[in-house]
């Protein structure tokens, strides 16, 4: 079983994906990690973010193991890490180089401890359209930029990361703009995706609705 959850930053994809993978005992692939890894590696190697050749080389050499190693760096999940990921993810060659690694996971999904899983939940921007167009169930989760910025802002404060709401909102809007307008794999719902707006639905409500869709699929 392959389930994809796409949508803009801070719409609630990660929470939903983690809840679904736990409930059904499926592996989880947060595909934003591949772009965060490339963005962070560019920063660590003192490369200019506009250097597409460097970003491509880093992408071609990225392994699943190194990505998880980089994820331990505090900058991986910071606002800077998100911004850098968003910039490198707009490079078509970078996306192409990172596609196989994401697709391979569906052939052989594993949990963090290496145990094989019977299914996988992907979360990202293009997992239902480009990474796994063959997915069994596809969701697209969205919410207004203001609601998403408010959530991100509170998340930063909870993690002890200093943040300013207006800056977070500007960043959310800039990332939306880049994700929606890039030439390769722009963020859009797959034609067969079920769309949820979490500005008006709580995460438990979305989880319940999503489980109804998954159960329906499994029963047929
Ligand atoms: O989801 P997350 O915030 O970790 O993603 C970081 C950045 O990576 C996003 O802003 C987006 O630009 C990019 N991304 C993407 N395609 C994906 C997942 C993430 O372009 N499938």
Descriptive tags:
binds cytidine-5'-monophosphate, Rossmann fold, 10 helices, alpha/beta, 220 residues, single chain
Give a description of the structure:
The protein has one domain (2-212): Rossmann fold, CATH 3.40.50.300. Helix 2 (32-44) crosses helix 4, helix 2 (32-44) packs across helix 5 and helix 5 packs parallel to helix 9. The protein has ten helices and five strands, in the order βαβαααααβαβααβα. Helices cover 55% and strands 11% of the residues. The chain has a five-stranded parallel β-sheet with strand order 2-3-1-4-5, sandwiched between helices. It has 220 residues and is α/β, with parallel strands linked by helices. The protein binds cytidine-5'-monophosphate (C5P).
How many strands, which pairing sense, and closed or not: the largest β-sheet?
Answer: 5 strands, parallel
Mean pLDDT: 95
Quote the beta fraction.
5-15%
Task: Find the structural class using helix and strand composition.
Answer: alpha/beta
Order of helices and strands: EHEHHHHHEHEHHEH
Order of the strands making up the biggest sheet: 2-3-1-4-5
The Cα radius of gyration reads: 17 Å
- Summed up, the helix count is 10
Which compounds are bound in this model? cytidine-5'-monophosphate
> Which bin fits the share of residues in helices?
55-70%
Question: What's the CATH superfamily, by name?
Answer: P-loop containing nucleotide triphosphate hydrolases
Name of the top-level CATH class: Alpha Beta
Shape: globular
Count the strands? 5
**pLDDT < 50 stretches:** none
Calculate the terminal CA-CA distance, rounded to whole Å.
13 Å
CATH architecture level-2 label: 3-Layer(aba) Sandwich
Integer count of domains: 1
């Amino acid at each position: 079983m392959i389930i994809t959850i796409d949508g803009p930053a801070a719409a609630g994809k990660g929470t939903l994906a983690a809840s679904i993978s736990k409930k059904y005992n499926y592996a989880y692939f947060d595909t934003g990690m591949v772009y965060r890894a490339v963005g962070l590696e560019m920063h660590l190697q003192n490369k200019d973010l506009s250097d597409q050749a460097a970003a491509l080389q880093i992408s071609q050499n990225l392994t699943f193991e190194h990505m998880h190693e980089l994820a331990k760096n505090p900058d991986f999940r910071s606002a800077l890490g998100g911004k850098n990921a968003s910039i490198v993810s707009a490079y078509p060659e970078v996306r192409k180089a990172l596609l196989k690694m994401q697709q391979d996971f569906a052939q052989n999904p594993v949990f963090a401890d290496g145990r094989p899983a019977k299914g996988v939940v992907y979360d990202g921007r293009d997992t239902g359209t480009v990474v796994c167009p063959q997915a069994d169930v596809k969701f697209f989760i969205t919410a207004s930029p203001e609601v998403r910025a408010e959530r991100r802002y509170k998340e930063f404060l909870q993690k002890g990361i200093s943040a300013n709401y207006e800056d977070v909102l500007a960043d959310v809007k800039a990332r939306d703009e880049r994700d929606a307008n890039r030439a390769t794999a722009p963020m859009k719902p797959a034609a067969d995706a079920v769309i949820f707006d979490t500005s008006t639905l709580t995460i438990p409500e979305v989880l319940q609705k999503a489980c109804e869709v998954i159960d329906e699929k499994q029963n047929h």
